[in-house]
């Protein structure tokens, strides 16, 4: 092996990191400083255009759009982390279990999984909101639970592939227990799939939060949320497209950033994809 | 005493059904296989793909259960034993698999791959053993920190052999260990295997579709066809004077200089 092997620095990883970093920094900065109080209603400043005092202008209640976007970034990150966390932490082990368990048990788990998959995510979130009280956390746990089946399916199909490899046979004949095989061989080898699924689910979670906020089951006013900003802009879309554009672009940046990050991470994390130079 | 005694081994697979009314077809992978392996035997199993060789290996390594028949290992019946009572087998019998890429986890470093049986079996000094093993199979010490894909096919098979030797087994089962390799490195790996078998007084079960390879490594050969052993005996004898027509076909299929010359003449 005289060839020097270097990890490739894929552009998607760095662009993704940059965009996600922007969202994270904005969210963190909002704890220390915002140009105005994002919830301050000021009738005198209604629908001001962008300027030096109000960078993105104000909405129909005279609230500063830029401050709302900053604080809204917190909500977005919170939403993504909770929903994807719930889905990945339940779905991945479930899928691996279904792949490694006796056939009848695995089939049973997957059929129950299909049942959950068939249940609309938003409806589940609304039911949760009605039962446990509507707020961002309940809504996102519901969205997370609704995303469990997609993680379970991805994890199961990946795990079935891994279980049929010779290195799992070798591990079995080495005397490894089932749990050790799941942790040492199956999970690392399906991590790429789970990471990509996470980035997709993150995007879905952010959009679901927007939809739920509109219906009154998501983030409750006055807590700023990009989704709610977008919905509130609807009635003035023709007059003030700026009100939709600002949160829309913010959502796009976050979703795109996480997708690119997921892609880049998968490429980087897979040692087989290393580029030899 | 025989290390392995196989008696009337059957293994029937059932293909998944493709129709609601018709049951899946039965595939008889093994049909009454019996043989004895004395200590330090070098036993070759030859046959074309689908002859039941791989099934036999899985059963020997207790990675699968036979439909009927028994396998005893060092006088102990291992058929149908639960995993927790197979610990002695996991130490005493190790397998070298065919595909040197597929049998090594792409996400594990060579160190962890080779030490896997040691860690699984609670060895006291895996690091020290790793050094010995790398030496034994002729790999440089710094290989330990690399990933499998950074090695050539022959080197990967060396890693696989090192892992198999790790728990200091008495029986080594090799499933077509050279058929995925370039012809140029086959001889190296075969010689390495032969040396290690000699050095550590191993009992070898060597499975291949290539009779000429088996002949070089093994003293006894069993020829398998459709799940049955059709001929068994000393390697040279079978190669020189095959009794069964199928064995003759297998030998005729091995390319030699003479047959090659005739073809191009």
- Supply the helix-strand structural class of chain A: mainly alpha
Quaternary state, please? heterodimer
Proportion of helical residues of chain A: over 70%
The low-confidence runs of chain B, each spanning 5 or more residues with pLDDT under 50, are none
For the secondary structure, the number of strands of chain A is 2
Largest sheet of chain B: 6 strands, mixed
What is the count of helical runs of chain A? 9
| Class by SSE composition of chain B | alpha/beta
Overall pLDDT level of chain A: 83
Helix content of chain B: 25-40%
Query: Sheet bearing the most strands of chain A, described?
Result: 2 strands, antiparallel
Secondary-structure element string of chain A: EHHHHHHHHHE
Global outline of chain B: globular
- Percent of residues in beta strands of chain A: under 5%
Residue ranges of chain A: pLDDT <50 for 5 or more in a row?
1-6
Strand and helix layout:
The complex is a heterodimer of chains A (277) and B (265).
Chain A: E1 5-6, H1 11-32, H2 65-100, H3 103-118, H4 121-132, H5 136-163, H6 166-173, H7 178-215, H8 226-232, H9 242-269, E2 275-276
Chain B: E1 2-14, E2 26-38, E3 42-46, H1 53-60, E4 68-73, E5 76-77, H2 87-92, E6 93-96, H3 110-120, H4 126-137, H5 153-165, E7 171-175, H6 183-199, E8 203-208, H7 211-217, E9 220-225, E10 228-234, H8 235-240, H9 245-253, H10 257-264
């Amino acid at each position: 092996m005289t060839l020097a092997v270097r990890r490739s620095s894929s552009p998607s990883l760095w662009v993704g990191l940059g965009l996600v970093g922007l969202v994270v920094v904005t969210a963190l900065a909002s704890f220390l400083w915002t140009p105005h109080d994002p919830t301050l209603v000021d009738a005198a400043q209604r629908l001001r255009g962008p300027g030096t005092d109000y960078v993105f202008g104000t909405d129909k209640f005279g609230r500063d759009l830029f401050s709302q976007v900053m604080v809204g970034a917190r909500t977005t990150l919170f939403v993504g982390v909770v929903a994807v966390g719930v889905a990945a932490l339940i779905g991945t082990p479930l899928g691996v279990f279904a792949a490694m368990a006796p056939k009848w048990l695995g089939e049973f788990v997957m059929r129950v999984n299909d049942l959950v998959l068939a249940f609309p995510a938003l409806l589940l979130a609304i039911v949760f909101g009605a039962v446990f009280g509507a707020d961002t956390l309940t809504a996102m746990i519901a969205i997370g639970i609704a995303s469990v089946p997609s993680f379970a399916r991805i994890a199961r199909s990946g795990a079935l592939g891994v279980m049929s490899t010779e290195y799992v046979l070798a591990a079995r004949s080495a005397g490894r227990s089932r749990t050790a095989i799941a942790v040492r061989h199956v999970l690392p080898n399906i991590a790429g799939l789970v990471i990509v699924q996470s980035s997709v689910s993150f995007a879905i979670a952010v959009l679901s939060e927007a939809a739920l906020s509109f219906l009154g089951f998501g983030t409750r006013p006055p807590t700023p949320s990009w989704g709610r900003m977008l919905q509130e802009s609807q009635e003035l879309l023709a007059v003030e497209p700026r009100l939709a554009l600002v949160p829309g672009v913010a959502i796009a940046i976050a979703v795109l950033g996480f997708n690119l990050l997921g892609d880049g991470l998968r490429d980087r994390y897979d040692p087989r994809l290393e580029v030899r130079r | 005493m025989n290390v392995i005694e196989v008696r009337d081994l059957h293994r029937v697979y059932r293909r998944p059904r493709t129709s609601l009314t018709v049951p899946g077809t039965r595939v008889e992978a093994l049909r009454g296989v019996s043989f004895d392996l004395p200590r330090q035997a070098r036993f070759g199993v030859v046959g074309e793909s689908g002859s039941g060789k791989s099934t036999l290996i899985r059963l020997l390594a207790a990675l699968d259960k036979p439909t009927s028949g028994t396998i005893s290992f060092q006088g102990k019946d291992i058929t149908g034993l639960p995993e927790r009572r197979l610990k002695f087998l996991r130490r005493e019998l190790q397998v070298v698999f065919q595909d040197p890429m597929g049998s090594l986890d792409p996400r594990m470093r060579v160190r962890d791959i080779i030490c896997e049986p040691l860690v699984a079996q609670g060895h006291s000094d895996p690091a020290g053993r790793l050094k010995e093993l790398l030496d034994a199979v002729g790999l440089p010490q710094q290989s330990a920190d690399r990933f499998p894909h950074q090695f050539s096919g022959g080197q990967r098979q060396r890693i696989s052999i090192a892992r198999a030797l790790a728990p200091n087994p008495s029986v080594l089962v090799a499933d077509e260990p050279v058929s995925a390799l370039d012809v140029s490195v086959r001889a190296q790996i075969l010689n390495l295997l032969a040396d290690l078998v000699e050095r550590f007084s191993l009992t070898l079960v060597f499975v291949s579709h290539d009779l000429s390879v088996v002949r070089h490594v093994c003293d006894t050969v069993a020829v398998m066809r459709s799940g049955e052993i059709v001929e068994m005996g000393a390697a040279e004898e079978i190669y020189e004077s095959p009794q069964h027509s199928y064995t003759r076909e297998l030998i005729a299929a091995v390319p030699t200089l003479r047959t090659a010359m005739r073809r191009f003449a």
